[in-house]
Amino acid sequence: MTESKVETVLITGANGGVGRLMRPRLAREGRILRLLDVVRPDPAAEGEAVELIEASVTDEAAMREACAGVDAIIHLGGISVEAPWSDILSVNIDGTRVVLEAARDAGVARVVLASSNHAVGFYDLDDAPADGLPADVLPRPDTYYGVSKVAMEGLGSLFHDRYGIDVTAVRIGSCFEKPWDRRSLWTWMSPDDGARLLEACLATPEPGFRMVWGISRNTRNWWSMEAGEAIGYHPQDDSEAFAAELLGDAVDDGPQGPEERLAGGKFCSTPLGEHQK
Ligand code: 15L
């Protein structure tokens, strides 16, 4: 009898907003989720195949240990908003380098990086061609946080070209249970679509470096779906289901002002380097 191989997927930042949404959705027969966070993730529920690690992505020894026997890494760890440069530099930029170096040393074949719309936050709706803004459009970061996501993409590209690691950088829009304001009707990625996208990244056959948008199939969409579709990401959710409830009696007159017209929304005017709530 041939033994079926158990796949181990390391998720950094597993206790963060996106990590918690993905944990139940990425559970699969024959898969172990190794959950790493600075705040220890919740204990395993009954029947849940998880391993828990309390560590920072900046801790080289801990990351090396965490990568042992891992088939793929989903790197969600880091600061998720604007913050002082020194923190962004250490946690987001150097942390990503530490993760990728540990992946290389352990022979991990595949890494998914959580980039963000804030790597391209200064694009205006008018900049998008009719079939949407391509996923590999040049960076226009809106914050130091956005710069760290550009650096993350650069590091991903470097580790693919040098060591052949398969790297997908996902420029995530807004991954929450529901859209919560007008802008998020354009930027929403449902948690279920998030999991669909990560599964597509884990399954793509050809090693490469690629960038994709982490966005649902929203009616109000200005992102090209092409790069995602090319790796088998077929989103199924649409923020429009929440539009009536969200907009109430307000006139639905399209995106207004920089906070809605710029991809990065409020991040584009948040003071650089200040802790953002
Ligand atoms: C992000 O990159 C942030 O991590 C998240 O907190 C949201 O602000 C999201 O972008 C967004 O733009 O909605």
> Radius of gyration from the CA trace?
18 Å
What is the CATH topology assignment? Rossmann fold
Low-confidence runs (pLDDT<50, min 5 residues)? none
In whole angstroms, how far apart are the ends? 55 Å
Average pLDDT score = 96
DSSP strand (E) fraction? 15-25%
What's the architecture in CATH terms? 3-Layer(aba) Sandwich
Report helical residue fraction.
Answer: 25-40%
Overall strand count: 9
Q: Structural class per helix/strand content?
A: alpha/beta
Order of helices and strands: EHEEHEHEHEEHEHEHHH
Q: Can you identify the CATH class?
A: Alpha Beta
Work out the count of structural domains. 1
Reported for the largest beta sheet, the result is: 7 strands, parallel
Bound molecules: D-galactaro-1,5-lactone
| Strand order of the biggest β-sheet | 3-2-1-4-5-6-9
Q: Please report the number of helical segments.
A: 9
What global shape is seen? globular
Q: In CATH, what is the homologous superfamily? A: NAD(P)-binding Rossmann-like Domain
